[in-house]
Specification:
This protein is α/β, with parallel strands linked by helices. It contains 21 helices and 14 strands. The chain has an 8-stranded mixed beta sheet, sandwiched between helices. Strand 8 and strand 9 form a beta hairpin. Helix 2 packs antiparallel against helix 7. The longest helix has 26 residues.
Length: 616
């Protein structure tokens, strides 16, 4: 067996100097097509075609370079990098039915070691694709690249590739987006297209420095005298909870038995809408005065934690998201670090936050408290988010194990929240809970994934509710008025206005009419949201569920082209060869073909954040 394996390896990877130029060209075309298939489908035929053309120029150069001692190792390194680049797209396409975008890149850069291992366990293609593609390229290059080297095609294709990149650079200068660096725009339609996305995410992370440079001055900050110094306000940010699967909202399974028992004590918002389907985009908007139309890292200094600090609150941010708040540099930790106490709770499950809450409540402080608990909730894979001993729906013979595990994670979160309630009993205290976003659910595979570049409404439908003890932390904010608006749509990026109203805080830039407690409050008619590419959409315009989403751009364009061609071939005048000028008549325009009202100028640029204008 060992000898057979050795012979197979020698046959696949042994270098051959007798290959023909034709075999080398076929190998280069094969690798270029494999490398470009995903962007052709998910980026659209134009952008994917530009990537394909670059690959067709690059791969003959790489295969020939394997037979040039001076260039062999650089070529191997570039081939490995292109395998990793392809892997990011394949994982996004297979598991999320989406292209690799800004939110995915930010999440990858911001992830913890434990989360990385969990995601590799869930997405084995992340390891299989780069290794398999690299070995295939190495095998084809060793066996057939010599013909390209002898014919000097490697050097010529390399020169052509450099000229092509210079043309893309010029095109980026002409049509690129001014808010994105020129090099990133150029890379977005090159064979390393995902390097552009990752570089863009890294560039956005570096803007963290500007965010941390100064404290935002809200101006005219005041606190209601009815809020006593022993008041406790707890904001719980859940993770990846779908509103549709909470029994509190009518789900058939008892996933929230403790909340169900307290139903009369809660104000439950029936139609809360998240601003984005990814934590890295959603939480900064929940905790700051930005929204999907104005979102930019430059504006995150105007956040709820800084506002509470200036109002004389003692603030704490306790997180189980895995990242060390004190050292990691992300948009979320930039806000969390503004708190008087910012801690990452390194326990296996969210119930570790209860001990941290005990410590926070026992701490001697001045003024009322605002405590943020950031859960890990139902983050995929959900089966890892609760102890095996607390499995309720998931059994060895489960027919839908992913749904059962997901429902178990929600039930465990319900248990953690009940622990928070019990610790607050007897105090002037309250809890405001919402999930950062929901998840897509593919009923065919039973998979639960984050929303992608063509999301449905599902990952934006989130639970949001408020609970108070008998001694309300802010007696001026009784719940009757809030209940009157609980059945109306509520944009969770307006949470800072609702929360500041609850906290009894007023400031010069306040917009009180965005709080459901206000007499002048009117629910928004349309709700802007971002997809994982950072593109602006409206929730009302999105399809209702996962299976209703449109095709990927390239597949949709191909389908439209086939339909248009079929329609043209079926026209009698086309078949007869007469044309539109028959009988001396002038051709009439086709009334069915009209310019799109939503058409916009072509931009050669990766999807970016929607706003680079000054906020109000």
């Amino acid at each position: 067996m060992k000898g057979l394996l050795q012979r197979l390896v020698r046959r696949l990877f042994a270098r051959s100097d007798q290959a023909s130029k034709r075999a080398g060209v076929i190998s280069a075309i094969t690798l270029a097509l494999l490398a470009s298939l995903v962007p052709l489908i998910y980026h659209g035929l134009l952008e994917g075609g530009l990537i394909l053309f670059g690959n067709l120029l690059l791969w003959p150069c790489l295969l020939a370079a394997l037979h040039r001692p001076r260039w062999r190792w650089p070529a191997l390194g570039l081939m490995a990098a292109l395998g990793v680049n392809l892997s990011a797209s394949v994982v996004s396409a297979v598991y999320y039915d989406s292209r690799y975008g800004l939110a995915f890149a930010l999440s990858s850069l911001d992830t913890s070691r434990s989360e990385s291992m969990a995601m590799l366990f869930k997405f084995p293609l992340a390891l299989i694709v780069p290794l398999g593609f690299f070995l295939l390229a190495l095998s084809l290059g060793n066996r057939f690249g010599a013909g390209l080297a002898r014919a000097r095609l490697g050097g010529r294709s390399g020169i052509a590739f450099v000229l092509w990149m210079l043309m893309l650079l010029a095109g980026s200068w002409q049509w690129g987006r001014a808010s994105v660096p020129l090099a990133i725009t150029t890379l977005s339609v090159s064979p390393g297209w995902n390097l552009a996305t990752t570089s863009h995410a890294w560039w956005e992370k570096e803007r963290y420095k500007a965010l941390m440079a100064d404290d935002y001055d809200f101006g005219g900050v005041s606190r209601s005298p009815e809020v006593s110094d022993d008041a406790v306000f707890v904001l719980i940010i859940g993770e990846s909870q779908r509103r549709d699967q909470l029994s509190l909202y009518g789900y058939s399974r008892a996933t929230t038995p403790n909340l169900d028992a307290r139903r009369d004590e809660l104000v439950v918002f029936d139609q809360a809408i998240a601003p984005a389907p990814q934590t890295v985009l959603a939480v900064p908007m929940l905790a700051s005065l930005t929204d999907p139309r104005t979102f930019s890292p430059r504006y995150l200094d105007a956040n709820l934690i800084s506002l509470a600090n200036q109002a004389g609150y003692h603030t704490e941010w306790l997180s189980r998201q895995g990242l060390d708040i004190t050292s990691e540099r992300t948009w979320i930790t930039a806000i969390a670090q503004r708190a008087d106490v910012a801690r990452t709770i390194m326990t296996d499950y969210d119930d570790g936050l209860l001990d941290a809450l005990d410590e926070a409540l026992a701490r001697e402080v001045e003024g009322p408290r605002l405590i943020v608990l950031h859960l890990y909730g139902s983050h995929p894979p959900a089966s890892l988010q609760y102890p095996d001993s607390l499995r309720y729906f998931l059994t060895p013979d489960s027919r839908s194990p992913l749904t059962d595990a997901y429902d178990d994670s929600i039930r465990f979160t319900d248990q953690v929240i009940e622990g928070v309630f019990q610790r607050l009993e007897g105090r002037p205290a309250g809890v405001l809970y919402l999930s950062d976003h929901g998840l897509e659910h593919d009923p065919l595979s039973d998979a639960y994934v984050h929303g992608g570049d063509r999301p449905s409404q599902a990952p934006y439908r989130i639970p949001l509710w408020l609970w108070q003890t008998g001694q309300a932390p802010n007696p001026a904010r009784e719940l009757t008025r809030l209940r009157s608006h609980a059945d109306e749509p509520f944009a969770s990026f307006d949470l800072p206005y609702l929360a500041s109203d609850w906290l009894g805080i007023r400031f010069s830039g306040d917009k009180p009419c965005l709080s459901p407690w206000a007499v002048c409050y009117q629910p928004r008619e349309r709700h802007p949201v971002l997809d994982q590419l950072g593109r602006l959409n409206f929730y009302e315009a999105l399809p209702s569920d996962f299976l209703s989403r449109p095709l990927a751009p390239g597949a949709e364009e191909l389908e439209e082209a086939v339909e248009a061609t079929t329609e043209l071939l079926e026209r009698p005048e086309f078949m007869s060869g007469q044309g539109a000028k028959r009988d001396g008549q002038a051709p009439q325009p086709d009334s069915r073909v009209t310019p799109s009202e939503d058409s916009s100028a072509f931009t050669l640029s990766p999807a970016s954040l929607p706003s680079e204008t000054l906020k109000d």
